[in-house]
Amino acid sequence: MKTNKNLIKLLSGEFPLVSAPYRAMAEKAGMSEKDLIKKIKMLKKRKILKTIRAVPKHQNIGYGTNVMAVWKVSDNGFVKKAKEVIKIDNVSHCYERKRYPGWDFNFYTMIHAKNKPDCLRIVNRIKIITKPVDYKLLFSEKEYKKTGFVI
Amino acid sequence: MIEDKIVRKILNIIQDEIPVSRRPFKLIGDNIGMAEREVIKIIKKMKTDGFIRRIGGNFDLRKIGYATTLVGIKAPENKINKIAGTVCKLKEVTHCYKRTDEFNLWFTLNSSSGLKLNKLIDKIRVMTKIRDVLDLRAVRIFKLKLNFRV
User: Fold this and answer.
1) Is there a contact between B56 and A37 if contact means CB atoms under 8 Å apart?
2) Residues in A 74-113 with any Cβ partner in B closer than 8 A
3) Which residues, 6+ apart, have CB-to-CB distance to B138 below 8 Å?
4) Whole-angstrom distance, CA of residue A37 vs CA of residue A25
5) What is the distance between the alpha carbons of residues A89 and A108, in angstroms, rounded to a whole number?
6) Residue A20: its chain B contacts at CB < 8 A?
7) Alpha-carbon distance B19 to B31, whole Å?
8) Can you tell me the distance from the alpha carbon of B94 to that of B107, in angstroms, rounded to the nearest whole number?
9) pLDDT (tens digit, 9 = 90+) per residue, B62-105?
């Protein structure tokens, strides 16, 4: 378990932009490059590590508008509807969440688009698929923090 | 906006995955007909130009027992920046946004266990002096993919 945590911490740092990045990280961690690659592949196999990748700064690559659309969707055919919604590329997050007293929404979608009208077009598509009893659109007005979680 | 077609192609590739192999950037370069050195140069520039937030591992920490939730609170308009500042000091808070609703402050909370998460939410109630805190645990994740084709 401790090895996992150390490895996760190592990979949560900034990926070295060099010819042999895993060798660079392995040296830092006091292991061989071969060992590190082996351990990473094991983490992937166990689905603890999803992937090593670049996280975009969406505002700067043309996806400046984001809206969290929350929906009240009936339990009937819920999963089928969700599976349709996730096909939409602009939907980055799609969750079923616990209902809360006074906040009865159960289906949450994060939508990123170039502008508000585009966002609303996606909202409409989701509306057609899910046929919600109710929904709310919570546009982002200000970003206070956006980091990855480092254990 | 990214003008160069090759740069956009590289960004699309690395948003998906950076290969787990000894020379990942050479591998990418080989696939698109570009020298390894050039690929690295382009990625570095994308970072400094602000197109990339970070490069590293994306984890599903729930697999090792971690818990996460989405929290929404009603912050008084004249205090929202201060409250956001207080909340964002916690390392367990990763994303924090002001949104257009009476529940106007939203953030994601991560912790090493569900129990710790509960305690954290109580702590936040005390810190912010706000009782009305929506703790919206995920029942099921259908999609989690921040990947934008350029």
Assistant:
1) no
2) 82-83, 85-86, 89, 91-98, 100, 103, 106, 108, 112
3) A95, A96, A97, A98, B68, B69, B70
4) 10
5) 15
6) 22-23
7) 12
8) 7
9) 999 999 999 999 999 999 999 999 999 999 999 999 999 999 99
Cβ(A7)–Cβ(A44) below 8 Å = no
Place of tokens 């090792």: B64
- Contact between B75 and B65 under an 8 Å Cβ cutoff? The reply is no
Check CB contact of A38 with chain B, cutoff 8 Å.
Answer: no
> Of the candidates B60, A20, B33, which has an alpha carbon nearest to the alpha carbon of residue B10?
B33
Distinct helix (H) and strand (E) counts, chain B: 5, 5
Q: Which residues in chain A have their CB less than 8 angstroms from residue B21's CB?
A: 22, 37
**Tokens at residue B63, please?**
């697999």
Separation between Cα atoms, residue A75 and residue A69, nearest integer Å:
18
DSSP, collapsed to helix, strand or coil, labels residue B61 as helix
Regarding an ipTM greater than 0.85, the answer is yes
Which residue do the tokens 């007005």 mark? A141
| Single pTM value for the model | 0.89
Residue of B63, B62, B65, B66 lying closest to B111 (CA atoms): B66
